Amino acid sequence: MADHGYDAGRLNLPFVGISTFAKRPYEPDWAALDADVAILGAPFDAGTQWRSGARFGPRGVREASTLFSFGHAGAYDHEDDLTYLPGDVNIVDIGDADIVHTDTETSHANIEKGVRAILDAGALPVVIGGDHSVNIPCIRAFEGQGDIHILQIDAHLDFVDVRHGVRHGHGNPMRRAAEQDYVTGLTQVGIRNVSSTSKEGYDDARAMGSDIISVRQAREMGVRGVLAHVPIGARLYVTIDIDAFCPSIAPGTGTPSHGGFLYYEVLEMLQAAAERHEIVGIDLVEVAPDYDHSGSTTILAAQLLLNFLGFIFHARSQL
């Protein structure tokens, strides 16, 4: 056999093999989960009010993430002079929650079951949606886990109470979260332009403990100013709607809203959050790959998640 310059194991380059998240190991047995981070797909988009397709978000983000499959060497960042996600950070992909088409309650219950399994194993849950309604079962899973504060990065407030009898669609999750007694407040960043939530929803959000910050306000106050709205010492759950970004860089979503963030604006916000707070959970939602044939939206989502995980575990290593 020819010598191709490697002496042990397979190369497992990004374009070969199975597209688990960042080519990390697949763990189908949720009862045997032993990891620092567990990736769960939530391919549910029946809560969508406009363009569907986010059910293919987990598959698309996983495939895009193979571009960043660093193996065991980690990823060196010359600006920070740090290697993020070294081999001792154990990330596994536990597959997708079972989704039943058109059945919101069953699908949400199965997502909650997956997040609870991750929390029971002492791992950090990272859920890839799906529409933003998947956040509802994610937050439910934190019952009994102690108080949390939610950092939402999004174009839309998602604080509708009930519309046309719907309580668990993708316009409702932050209202459902605020109703939980273990959710101590919300910092909602990136909210802009014509919104799906009425003025009454904004009034209710503020009355129920939300700080609402637009993109222009966030730029004016800077990262430190934004994070000052999160209480010191709060345990932070971060929910990221991909439409928080300008559709010029993230067109692959159901409800694009112009005037959104650019990549480094959000990345620096997440880095600051990881430095200041214990991050207890993450979801990234509303990636709909079919609206972006360039693949840039899924690549952005994967890159953002991997960088955020790098920040989180670097911060933990400094404790």
Give the strand content.
15-25%
CATH architecture descriptor: 3-Layer(aba) Sandwich
CATH superfamily: Ureohydrolase domain
What is the oligomeric state here? single chain
Strand order of the largest sheet: 4-1-5-10-9-6-7-8
Largest sheet: 8 strands, parallel
Cα Rg: 19 Å
Distance between the termini: 48 Å
Let me know the number of strands. 10
Calculate the mean pLDDT score and round it: 94
Which secondary-structure class do the elements indicate?
Answer: alpha/beta
Q: Which residues sit in consecutive blocks of at least 5 with pLDDT less than 50? A: none
Order of helical and strand elements: EHEEEHEHEHEHEHEHEH
Number of domains: 1
Helix content: 25-40%
| CATH class division | Alpha Beta
User: What is the overall number of helices?
Assistant: 8
Description:
By secondary structure, this protein is an alpha/beta fold. It has one domain: 3-Layer(aba) Sandwich (Arginase, Chain A), CATH 3.40.800. The chain is 30% helix and 18% strand. It contains 8 helices and 10 strands. The chain has helices at residues 57-65, 104-120, 135-140, 173-178, 199-207, 215-227, 263-276, 296-317; strands spanning 37-42, 75-77, 82-84, 91-96, 124-129, 148-153, 183-189, 210-213, 235-241, 278-285. An 8-stranded parallel β-sheet has the order 4-1-5-10-9-6-7-8, sandwiched between helices. It has a two-stranded antiparallel ribbon with strand order 2-3. Helix 7 (263-276) links the parallel strand 9 and strand 10 (278-285). Helix 1 (57-65) crosses helix 8, helix 6 runs parallel beside helix 7 (263-276) and helix 7 (263-276) runs parallel beside helix 8 (296-317).
